[in-house]
Design goal:
Elements lengths: L10 H4 L3 H4 L4 H10 L5 E5 L12 E5 L3 H5 L8 E2 L13 E7 L8 H11 E9 L1 H4 L4 H4 L1 H10 L3 H7 L6 E5 L2 E2 L20 H5 L2 H4 L3 H17 L1 H6 L7 E2 L3 E6 L1
Parallel strand pairs: 1-2, 1-4, 2-3, 4-5
Antiparallel strand pairs: 5-9, 6-9, 7-8
Length: about 250
């Protein structure tokens, strides 16, 4: 995150159960750690409860939310309360900077990405391509969530430019496994019934920020379509897939 922790709608209110709902998926985690290369030191910005932080390197976490910081386990890396746009470190302090599904929460994503580049030699950012993510079937039921991300999220191209351009940045597709353990927005693409669970939705920031009335209407439509078989008629082919490209992109610079 980049917003101050007491800003309305931030993780002080929506992040209460993140530690149990947002458990790092080991297959995605492996890709993230490979992208870090041989960097011996890592700053994890918008670190939340510590998912995807490597255990075999020296890590410092940066997170503005007191609620999220309180959920970091005993073995988690040391953390400081701060925001992406003003990192409290000297230039080149770290071998790598990590930012996992967070830049769309920052007040000024371009400034935050510039800060990542300032304090580290390599940057690894997990973000999403909105043009691809709009194709995910859940957008038919809750387009307001995608509209929210459209308003606040930088494009992948903009993030690449902020990190130095295509000469030093590569973008990798990160497909979502059908049994993904991390409960982010598209984690349940092959398990549509999961979205009917309020606990699951509480772990998805875009849904948690929309409000009960908006989300309730979309979820009611989904429940009807699942009960009637309409969802399976439209999307049943997904049930034969082991992984799905929901638009998540690993942006690796340096």
């Amino acid at each position: 995150m980049g917003l101050l922790a007491d800003h309305p709608g931030t993780y002080e209110t929506i992040g209460v159960e993140y530690r149990s709902r947002r458990v790092a998926d080991p297959r995605l985690e492996r890709r993230v750690h490979e992208a870090l290369g041989d960097a011996p030191t890592v700053v994890n910005v918008g670190a939340g409860t510590g998912s995807y932080e490597p255990r075999d390197r020296r890590v410092v976490a940066v997170e503005p939310s007191v609620v999220m910081l309180a959920q970091r386990g005993d073995g988690a890396a040391p953390a400081v309360r701060g925001i992406a746009e003003a990192l409290p470190f000297l230039d080149g302090s770290f071998g790598a900077a990590l930012a996992i599904l967070t830049i769309h929460h920052w007040t000024d994503p371009m400034a935050g990405l510039a800060e990542l580049r300032r304090v580290s030699r390599r940057q690894v950012v997990l973000h999403f391509d909105l043009d691809v993510s709009w194709r995910f079937w859940l957008a038919d039921y809750l387009p307001e969530a995608w509209a929210l991300d459209d308003r606040r999220s930088p494009t992948v191209d903009a993030a690449v430019a902020a990190l130095g351009g295509s000469d030093r940045v590569r973008v990798e597709v990160l497909p979502v496994p059908h049994d993904c353990t991390d409960g982010f927005m598209a984690a349940f693409w092959r398990r549509p019934d999961a979205y009917l669970d309020p606990g699951v939705r509480a772990g998805i920031s875009s849904l948690a920020q929309l409000g009960d009335a908006v989300v309730g209407a979309g979820i009611e439509r989904l429940a009807r379509d699942l009960a009637s078989g309409t969802w399976h008629e439209r999307h049943g082919a997904l049930l034969a897939l082991d992984e799905y490209d929901a638009g998540y992109r690993l942006i690796v610079a340096g």
